[in-house]
Amino acid sequence: MDLAYEKGPISAVDLEHSLPGTPANSTVRTQLRQLEERGLLRHYEEDGRFLYVPTQPPQVAARTAMRKYLTAYFNGSLELAFSTLISAKEAEIGDEEFDRLHKIIDEAADARRDS
Questions:
Q1: Predicted pLDDT of residue 89
Q2: Under 8 Å between Cβ of 101 and 107
Q3: CB 97 within 8 A of CB 105
Q4: Which of 26, 35, 30 is nearest to 3 (CA)?
Q5: Does position 101 have pLDDT exceeding 80, yes or no?
Q6: Are the C-beta atoms of 45 and 62 separated by less than 8 Å?
Q7: What would the pLDDT profile of 48-99 be if each residue is shown by its tens digit?
Q8: Does the structure show a pLDDT above 80 at 32?
Q9: SS (H, E, C) 26-83
């Protein structure tokens, strides 16, 4: 999916050459078909080859994936997910990032109060 967003319309062959390692062409095509069946990609034909493009803008796809992730790993709890991220040993948050996170939370609180 990342490559489809990054490179724009992409063929199975182009995708195969862009992936690390040496994935089989049939594996790449199977994955593309599965992503298309799930509604994440669509294809069109150009010059005798199928080109694949995402069906949603990246932000919409990210929100959808995050909702699924929250449900699968955190029982839908944003609080649990956030506290897990903050407490993760690898997550050393600098002052600037902490300030940005705080601002995001403040803006969400303001929007909630306004609605």
A1: 67
A2: no
A3: no
A4: 35
A5: yes
A6: no
A7: 999 999 999 999 999 988 999 999 999 999 999 988 988 886 768 888 998 9
A8: yes
A9: HHHHHHHHHHHHCCCEEEEEECCEEEEEECCCHHHHHHHHHHHHHHHHHCCCHHHHHH
